[in-house]
Amino acid sequence: MLPKRECQSSPQERRKQLPKKARKSRGAESGNGQARIRPFWSGTLTFGLVSVPVNLFPANQSNRAPLRMLGPEGEPLARRYYSQKSERDLDPDEMVRGYEYKKDKYVVISDEELERLAPEKTRDIDLTRFVPAESIPPIYFERGYFLTPDEGSEKAYKLLAKTMEQTDQAGIATFVMRGKEYLVAIFSDHGVLRAETMRFADELRSPADVGLPKKPKVPTATVRKFEKLISSKAKKEIPRAKLEDDQAARLLKLVKKKESKRANVVEVEAESKDEGKVVDMMEALKRSMRGKHK
User: 29: closest CA among 277, 221, 294, 287?
Assistant: First the structure.
């Protein structure tokens, strides 16, 4: 008999189980009517005898105009786990996790075993190693975050940020977030500490893996020709317009046009009046920093 993992309720079910006050607090708004941004993680940056309590905020947000699958009556569709053997949908308590070590061969891993393998829970990012910021290949970067000072840590935060920026050093550490251990690089940009979670070395492919030669030979004359071409097109910075998502803009324009004409519009009951609000991460970060530096 395969071990079963405990039944996990869906986000909707968990939401219903929350007290009314807790449900309302999740949809709290800031003073300007925008949805309040909450830290993705809170902990402490440690450097020698210095400890800096910080909050971690994602540095990006998805505005890719996602499309959702709907049923014939306009109802949103949900994904389910389906057993090809029994030809029926499975409940959460009927499923277990397995690692495929060979084609169609799995080793079952229980929740208890995963818990024993989990990293030690800690709220610290211990900066014990520093390297030149430019020495880290961008291919290692996975996702960017902002670190903001927690209450009472503004002075130490400013000192660490200024020192790292002047020395052009990046701190390398590991930390635990939501039960998973991450490799992270900490940078300082104009007085703001920024974190980049990094891929581990065994997650990267080499040029040889995709068939590229180690050092291709190119005639010097050809290189000089291309240098002139690049110089003629070089800019001091990337124009903002070049960073816009034109495809998403066209899709949103079509959606707005059809919505205004009430063409192919269906309505479903929303779970919360606060869902769907767009949050400006940079503006919220600036407000946070201004408030803390007064």
Answer: 277
